TrEMBL record:
SUPFAM superfamilies: Acyl-CoA N-acyltransferases (Nat). Pfam families: Acetyltransf_1. The keyword Oxidoreductase does not apply. GO terms for molecular function: N-acetyltransferase activity. The keyword Transferase applies. It comes from Streptomyces viridochromogenes Tue57. Residues 3-163 form the N-acetyltransferase domain. This is Putative Acetyltransferase.
């Protein structure tokens, strides 16, 4: 599968937002399904692109996935601190999975982090059930950092996110 990774274009915001939302919904990653507040964040690619770098995986002229790269603890960061970049909202359409798009997107983020002045580490958060993503991260050298695990909705005890990091 020939995959091109590049910056998202404004006319692709809606398509990427839908791919991201559907990936989370179809994989059961939103505790409140269609009514989950996070669904709006997943769909709002324009907001992400204004505050971070949004990369897309393109195959055959069609967007099949995307990721948000937050350089040096920018406003979209959840856990990144000084000298750290963060990967967020990695998603690949169901029909394109298993063909290297997710790994290509993560590799592109690692390259971006290495090219960012002062960046010494790249970090990310992941849900416990995102096993395919975990395999990608571990294959690329990311290690678990359980001391950084966190809960975005503290009043719900079962939503602890797992964290990973890659020292550059």
């Amino acid at each position: 599968m020939d995959i091109v990774i590049r910056q998202v274009e404004p006319d692709e915001y809606e398509a990427l937002g839908e791919i991201t939302a559907q990936a989370y919904l179809q994989d059961g990653l939103l505790d409140f399904g269609e009514s989950d507040e996070y669904l709006g964040e997943l769909k709002d690619v324009a907001k992400r692109a204004a505050a971070a770098e949004v990369l897309v995986a393109v195959h055959g002229g069609r967007v099949v996935g995307g990721v948000t790269f937050v350089p040096s603890g920018g406003p979209m960061a959840d856990i990144a601190g000084p000298g750290e970049a963060e990967i967020r909202m990695l998603a690949v359409s169901r029909e394109a999975r298993g063909r290297g798009a997710g790994e290509a997107l993560v590799r592109a983020c690692v390259e971006e982090a290495r090219a960012t002045d002062g960046c010494v580490r790249i970090v990310l958060s992941s849900q416990r059930t995102m096993h395919s993503a975990h395999r990608i991260y571990e294959r690329l050298g990311f290690v678990r950092t359980p001391e950084r695990d966190w809960n975005p909705i503290p009043h719900l005890s079962d939503i602890t996110l797992l964290t990973y990091e890659l020292t550059l």
